[in-house]
Amino acid sequence: MIAFLNGQYLAKDRVCISPDDRGFLFADGLYEVVRFYHNRPFRLREHRQRLENGARELRFNRCEFPEFDEVLMNLIEKNRLEKVESAIVYFQVTRGAAPRSHRFPPPETPLTVYAFAREFFSAVEEQENGAGAILVEDDRWGHCDLKTIALLPNTLAHQKARDAGAVEALFVREGLIQEGTHSNVAVVKGGIFYTPPLTRHVLPGITRQAVIELCREADIEVKEAAISKNFLLEADEVMIIGTTVEITPIVRIDGKLIGSGRPGPLTQQLQTALFRLTH
Ligand code: PDD
Asked: What CA–CA distance (Å, rounded) separates 35 from 44?
Protein backbone atom coordinates (compact mmCIF):
# COMPACT_ATOMS: atom_id res chain seq x y z
CA MET A 1 0.00 0.00 0.00
CA ILE A 2 1.33 3.43 -0.92
CA ALA A 3 0.85 6.17 1.66
CA PHE A 4 1.71 9.87 1.79
CA LEU A 5 3.89 11.53 4.42
CA ASN A 6 5.04 15.16 4.34
CA GLY A 7 5.26 15.56 0.58
CA GLN A 8 6.39 12.03 -0.26
CA TYR A 9 4.69 8.87 -1.45
CA LEU A 10 6.11 5.69 0.07
CA ALA A 11 5.15 2.16 1.08
CA LYS A 12 2.90 2.40 4.14
CA ASP A 13 5.10 0.06 6.15
CA ARG A 14 8.03 2.45 5.61
CA VAL A 15 6.21 5.45 7.08
CA CYS A 16 8.14 6.73 10.07
CA ILE A 17 6.65 9.26 12.48
CA SER A 18 8.58 10.87 15.33
CA PRO A 19 7.74 9.80 18.90
CA ASP A 20 7.71 13.56 19.57
CA ASP A 21 4.84 14.04 17.14
CA ARG A 22 2.09 16.01 18.86
CA GLY A 23 -0.49 13.74 17.31
CA PHE A 24 1.09 10.86 19.23
CA LEU A 25 1.70 12.78 22.47
CA PHE A 26 -1.36 15.04 22.69
CA ALA A 27 -3.84 13.88 19.99
CA ASP A 28 -3.10 17.37 18.66
CA GLY A 29 -4.41 16.84 15.15
CA LEU A 30 -7.26 16.82 12.68
CA TYR A 31 -8.43 14.30 10.11
CA GLU A 32 -10.82 13.76 7.23
CA VAL A 33 -12.20 10.62 5.62
CA VAL A 34 -13.22 11.11 1.99
CA ARG A 35 -15.18 8.53 0.04
CA PHE A 36 -14.52 7.81 -3.63
CA TYR A 37 -17.16 6.13 -5.79
CA HIS A 38 -15.88 4.80 -9.12
CA ASN A 39 -12.84 7.06 -8.95
CA ARG A 40 -14.93 10.16 -8.13
CA PRO A 41 -14.48 11.86 -4.74
CA PHE A 42 -17.67 12.75 -2.91
CA ARG A 43 -17.72 16.43 -1.88
CA LEU A 44 -13.96 16.90 -1.83
CA ARG A 45 -14.13 20.69 -1.45
CA GLU A 46 -16.36 20.47 1.62
CA HIS A 47 -13.92 18.05 3.29
CA ARG A 48 -10.97 20.34 2.59
CA GLN A 49 -12.87 23.36 3.90
CA ARG A 50 -13.80 21.54 7.12
CA LEU A 51 -10.13 20.62 7.62
CA GLU A 52 -9.05 24.22 7.01
CA ASN A 53 -11.66 25.56 9.44
CA GLY A 54 -10.41 23.09 12.04
CA ALA A 55 -6.79 24.18 11.49
CA ARG A 56 -7.83 27.80 12.08
CA GLU A 57 -9.74 26.89 15.27
CA LEU A 58 -6.77 24.89 16.61
CA ARG A 59 -4.40 27.75 15.62
CA PHE A 60 -2.15 25.59 13.45
CA ASN A 61 0.69 27.54 11.81
CA ARG A 62 -0.71 26.55 8.39
CA CYS A 63 -4.44 26.63 7.77
CA GLU A 64 -4.62 25.97 4.04
CA PHE A 65 -4.05 22.63 2.42
CA PRO A 66 -3.89 23.25 -1.32
CA GLU A 67 -2.24 19.84 -1.75
CA PHE A 68 -5.32 18.04 -0.34
CA ASP A 69 -7.13 17.27 -3.60
CA GLU A 70 -4.00 16.18 -5.45
CA VAL A 71 -2.78 13.89 -2.65
CA LEU A 72 -6.15 12.15 -2.52
CA MET A 73 -6.32 11.64 -6.28
CA ASN A 74 -2.69 10.42 -6.39
CA LEU A 75 -3.27 7.92 -3.59
CA ILE A 76 -6.25 6.47 -5.44
CA GLU A 77 -4.15 6.14 -8.58
CA LYS A 78 -0.98 4.82 -6.93
CA ASN A 79 -2.98 2.17 -5.08
CA ARG A 80 -4.85 1.18 -8.27
CA LEU A 81 -8.21 2.03 -6.76
CA GLU A 82 -9.60 3.81 -9.83
CA LYS A 83 -11.56 0.75 -10.91
CA VAL A 84 -13.09 -0.26 -7.57
CA GLU A 85 -16.67 0.67 -6.75
CA SER A 86 -15.70 2.46 -3.56
CA ALA A 87 -12.62 3.54 -1.64
CA ILE A 88 -11.75 5.88 1.22
CA VAL A 89 -8.84 8.20 1.73
CA TYR A 90 -7.81 9.07 5.29
CA PHE A 91 -5.98 12.40 5.62
CA GLN A 92 -4.47 13.56 8.92
CA VAL A 93 -2.63 16.70 9.94
CA THR A 94 -0.93 17.19 13.31
CA ARG A 95 0.87 20.16 14.82
CA GLY A 96 4.16 18.41 14.06
CA ALA A 97 7.05 17.05 16.11
CA ALA A 98 8.69 18.97 18.94
CA PRO A 99 10.02 18.08 22.43
CA ARG A 100 7.04 17.44 24.66
CA SER A 101 5.60 20.64 26.10
CA HIS A 102 2.08 21.96 26.61
CA ARG A 103 3.18 25.10 24.80
CA PHE A 104 2.80 25.21 21.04
CA PRO A 105 6.08 24.38 19.24
CA PRO A 106 8.03 27.19 17.49
CA PRO A 107 5.99 28.60 14.58
CA GLU A 108 8.40 27.24 11.95
CA THR A 109 7.71 23.63 13.04
CA PRO A 110 6.20 21.88 10.01
CA LEU A 111 2.84 20.19 10.43
CA THR A 112 2.87 16.42 9.95
CA VAL A 113 0.66 15.44 7.01
CA TYR A 114 -0.14 11.76 6.58
CA ALA A 115 -2.64 10.05 4.27
CA PHE A 116 -3.54 6.60 3.00
CA ALA A 117 -6.20 5.10 0.74
CA ARG A 118 -7.94 1.75 0.75
CA GLU A 119 -10.85 -0.04 -0.84
CA PHE A 120 -14.01 0.29 1.22
CA PHE A 121 -17.09 -1.93 1.33
CA SER A 122 -20.44 -0.69 2.58
CA ALA A 123 -22.16 -2.79 5.25
CA VAL A 124 -24.85 -3.86 2.80
CA GLU A 125 -26.70 -6.21 5.13
CA GLU A 126 -27.06 -3.46 7.78
CA GLN A 127 -28.09 -0.92 5.20
CA GLU A 128 -30.79 -3.25 3.83
CA ASN A 129 -32.17 -4.69 7.05
CA GLY A 130 -31.27 -2.07 9.61
CA ALA A 131 -29.15 -2.43 12.73
CA GLY A 132 -29.14 -1.70 16.45
CA ALA A 133 -27.77 1.27 18.37
CA ILE A 134 -27.26 2.00 22.06
CA LEU A 135 -27.50 5.27 23.98
CA VAL A 136 -24.51 6.52 26.00
CA GLU A 137 -23.88 9.65 28.06
CA ASP A 138 -21.91 12.20 26.05
CA ASP A 139 -18.62 12.50 27.92
CA ARG A 140 -16.73 14.13 25.04
CA TRP A 141 -15.09 17.57 25.20
CA GLY A 142 -16.77 20.84 24.22
CA HIS A 143 -15.56 21.03 20.61
CA CYS A 144 -17.02 18.04 18.82
CA ASP A 145 -17.67 20.34 15.85
CA LEU A 146 -13.94 19.97 15.06
CA LYS A 147 -12.81 16.72 13.49
CA THR A 148 -9.91 16.08 15.84
CA ILE A 149 -8.06 12.79 16.21
CA ALA A 150 -8.85 12.77 19.96
CA LEU A 151 -11.41 9.98 19.68
CA LEU A 152 -11.07 7.95 22.87
CA PRO A 153 -14.65 8.58 24.09
CA ASN A 154 -15.84 7.65 20.60
CA THR A 155 -13.91 4.39 20.44
CA LEU A 156 -14.94 3.38 23.99
CA ALA A 157 -18.61 4.09 23.22
CA HIS A 158 -18.39 2.36 19.87
CA GLN A 159 -16.87 -0.77 21.40
CA LYS A 160 -19.65 -0.78 24.00
CA ALA A 161 -22.15 -0.79 21.12
CA ARG A 162 -20.33 -3.66 19.39
CA ASP A 163 -20.20 -5.65 22.63
CA ALA A 164 -24.00 -5.23 22.85
CA GLY A 165 -24.46 -6.48 19.28
CA ALA A 166 -25.21 -2.97 17.98
CA VAL A 167 -23.41 -0.97 15.29
CA GLU A 168 -23.40 2.51 16.78
CA ALA A 169 -23.60 4.35 20.09
CA LEU A 170 -25.56 7.61 20.13
CA PHE A 171 -24.31 10.31 22.48
CA VAL A 172 -26.92 11.86 24.80
CA ARG A 173 -26.20 15.19 26.48
CA GLU A 174 -28.67 16.60 29.00
CA GLY A 175 -31.37 14.30 27.65
CA LEU A 176 -30.80 15.33 24.02
CA ILE A 177 -29.41 13.15 21.24
CA GLN A 178 -26.29 14.64 19.63
CA GLU A 179 -24.73 12.24 17.12
CA GLY A 180 -23.10 8.82 16.84
CA THR A 181 -19.46 7.94 17.50
CA HIS A 182 -18.68 8.19 13.77
CA SER A 183 -21.97 9.32 12.24
CA ASN A 184 -24.72 11.92 12.46
CA VAL A 185 -28.23 10.91 13.41
CA ALA A 186 -31.69 11.71 12.04
CA VAL A 187 -35.23 10.77 12.93
CA VAL A 188 -38.43 10.63 10.90
CA LYS A 189 -41.73 11.41 12.63
CA GLY A 190 -44.99 12.18 10.82
CA GLY A 191 -43.16 12.49 7.50
CA ILE A 192 -40.76 15.17 8.80
CA PHE A 193 -36.96 14.68 8.81
CA TYR A 194 -35.43 15.82 12.11
CA THR A 195 -31.73 16.11 12.82
CA PRO A 196 -29.95 17.84 15.74
CA PRO A 197 -28.81 21.39 14.94
CA LEU A 198 -25.10 22.12 14.47
CA THR A 199 -23.69 23.06 17.86
CA ARG A 200 -20.32 22.49 19.51
CA HIS A 201 -21.45 18.95 20.33
CA VAL A 202 -22.11 17.84 16.74
CA LEU A 203 -19.77 17.42 13.78
CA PRO A 204 -21.02 19.27 10.69
CA GLY A 205 -21.18 16.08 8.66
CA ILE A 206 -20.66 16.33 4.92
CA THR A 207 -23.10 13.46 4.33
CA ARG A 208 -25.64 15.02 6.73
CA GLN A 209 -25.60 18.18 4.60
CA ALA A 210 -26.00 16.16 1.39
CA VAL A 211 -28.97 14.28 2.88
CA ILE A 212 -30.63 17.54 3.97
CA GLU A 213 -30.32 18.75 0.38
CA LEU A 214 -31.81 15.48 -0.89
CA CYS A 215 -34.77 15.93 1.48
CA ARG A 216 -35.39 19.44 0.17
CA GLU A 217 -35.24 18.22 -3.44
CA ALA A 218 -37.79 15.54 -2.59
CA ASP A 219 -40.08 18.01 -0.75
CA ILE A 220 -39.49 16.31 2.57
CA GLU A 221 -39.72 18.85 5.36
CA VAL A 222 -36.45 19.22 7.33
CA LYS A 223 -36.27 20.39 10.93
CA GLU A 224 -32.87 20.95 12.53
CA ALA A 225 -34.19 20.66 16.06
CA ALA A 226 -33.22 19.21 19.42
CA ILE A 227 -34.19 15.53 19.70
CA SER A 228 -35.02 14.21 23.15
CA LYS A 229 -34.48 10.61 24.16
CA ASN A 230 -38.27 10.02 24.23
CA PHE A 231 -38.77 11.59 20.81
CA LEU A 232 -36.06 9.30 19.44
CA LEU A 233 -37.51 6.14 20.97
CA GLU A 234 -41.00 7.02 19.69
CA ALA A 235 -39.86 7.97 16.19
CA ASP A 236 -41.24 6.29 13.07
CA GLU A 237 -37.72 5.88 11.66
CA VAL A 238 -34.16 6.49 12.85
CA MET A 239 -31.04 6.52 10.70
CA ILE A 240 -27.34 7.20 11.04
CA ILE A 241 -25.59 9.18 8.32
CA GLY A 242 -21.91 9.49 7.40
CA THR A 243 -19.10 8.85 4.94
CA THR A 244 -18.65 5.22 5.97
CA VAL A 245 -22.18 4.26 7.09
CA GLU A 246 -23.82 6.28 4.26
CA ILE A 247 -27.45 5.97 5.41
CA THR A 248 -27.95 3.03 7.76
CA PRO A 249 -31.41 2.44 9.25
CA ILE A 250 -31.46 2.05 13.04
CA VAL A 251 -34.28 -0.32 13.92
CA ARG A 252 -33.43 -1.09 17.55
CA ILE A 253 -32.20 1.20 20.33
CA ASP A 254 -31.16 -0.31 23.67
CA GLY A 255 -33.11 -3.38 22.57
CA LYS A 256 -36.37 -1.48 21.92
CA LEU A 257 -37.81 -1.64 18.38
CA ILE A 258 -38.15 1.60 16.43
CA GLY A 259 -41.41 1.80 14.44
CA SER A 260 -42.07 -1.57 12.83
CA GLY A 261 -38.52 -2.75 13.53
CA ARG A 262 -37.80 -2.65 9.79
CA PRO A 263 -36.17 0.12 7.70
CA GLY A 264 -38.83 2.77 7.03
CA PRO A 265 -39.97 4.15 3.66
CA LEU A 266 -38.41 7.58 4.02
CA THR A 267 -35.05 6.11 5.03
CA GLN A 268 -35.17 3.82 2.00
CA GLN A 269 -36.13 6.71 -0.28
CA LEU A 270 -33.15 8.71 0.98
CA GLN A 271 -30.82 5.71 0.62
CA THR A 272 -31.84 5.45 -3.04
CA ALA A 273 -31.40 9.19 -3.58
CA LEU A 274 -27.93 9.14 -1.95
CA PHE A 275 -26.90 6.14 -4.07
CA ARG A 276 -27.94 8.04 -7.21
CA LEU A 277 -26.00 11.08 -6.09
CA THR A 278 -22.81 9.13 -5.38
CA HIS A 279 -22.85 6.63 -8.26
N1 PDD B 1 -16.54 9.95 10.90
N2 PDD B 1 -19.97 12.58 13.53
C3 PDD B 1 -18.79 12.05 13.90
C4 PDD B 1 -18.41 12.08 15.33
C5 PDD B 1 -17.95 11.48 12.92
O6 PDD B 1 -16.76 10.98 13.29
C7 PDD B 1 -18.37 11.44 11.56
C8 PDD B 1 -17.51 10.85 10.48
C9 PDD B 1 -19.62 12.00 11.23
C10 PDD B 1 -20.13 12.03 9.80
O11 PDD B 1 -19.45 13.01 9.05
P12 PDD B 1 -19.21 12.87 7.47
O13 PDD B 1 -20.54 12.73 6.83
O14 PDD B 1 -18.54 14.13 7.10
O15 PDD B 1 -18.37 11.64 7.27
C16 PDD B 1 -20.38 12.57 12.24
C17 PDD B 1 -15.54 9.41 10.00
C18 PDD B 1 -16.09 8.77 8.79
C19 PDD B 1 -14.60 8.48 10.78
O20 PDD B 1 -14.28 8.87 11.90
O21 PDD B 1 -14.18 7.45 10.28
From this structure: 9
pTM, two decimal places = 0.96
147: annotated active-site residue: yes
Ligand 1 centroid, distance to 101 Cα (angstroms): 30
pLDDT in tens, 75-134: 999 999 999 999 999 999 999 999 999 999 999 999 999 999 999 999 999 999 999 999
Domains and their CATH numbers in the chain: 2-119 (3.30.470.10), 124-278 (3.20.10.10)
Distance 137 CA to ligand 1 centre (A): 18
- Parallel, antiparallel or unpaired: strands 227-228 and 237-242: unpaired
The answer, yes or no, to whether any atom of ligand 1 lies below 6 A from the CB of 183, is yes
ipTM of the complex in this document: 0.99
Q: What angle do CA 224, 262, 244 make, to 5 degrees?
A: 60
